[in-house]
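Appendix C: a fully annotated inverse folding record. The material below is reproduced so that readers can follow the format used throughout the book. The structure is listed first as tokens, followed by the designed sequence.
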């Protein structure tokens, strides 16, 4: 039953958390478009960090679902 809860949490993260993060990234990208020079470079580095976080969230959510599925399959075997 714990595996099902982990899968549910991973799906909730994808459905709720990821759209919020995407909205945040879009807002940051539009802010970046209006900047020039050193300020733009500083903001660009910050945006890269958030993009990395978004990828990390997606990958870890998918991995959590796959690991849970694997554990449930193994549980059925034994």
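Designed amino acids, in order:
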């Amino acid at each position: 039953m714990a595996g099902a809860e982990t899968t549910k949490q991973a799906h909730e993260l994808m459905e709720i958390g990821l759209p919020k993060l995407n909205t945040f990234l879009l807002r940051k990208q539009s802010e970046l478009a209006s900047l020039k020079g050193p300020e733009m470079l500083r903001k660009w580095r910050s945006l890269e960090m958030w993009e990395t976080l978004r990828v990390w969230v997606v990958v870890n959510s998918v991995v959590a679902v796959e690991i849970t599925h694997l554990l449930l399959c193994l549980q059925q075997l034994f």
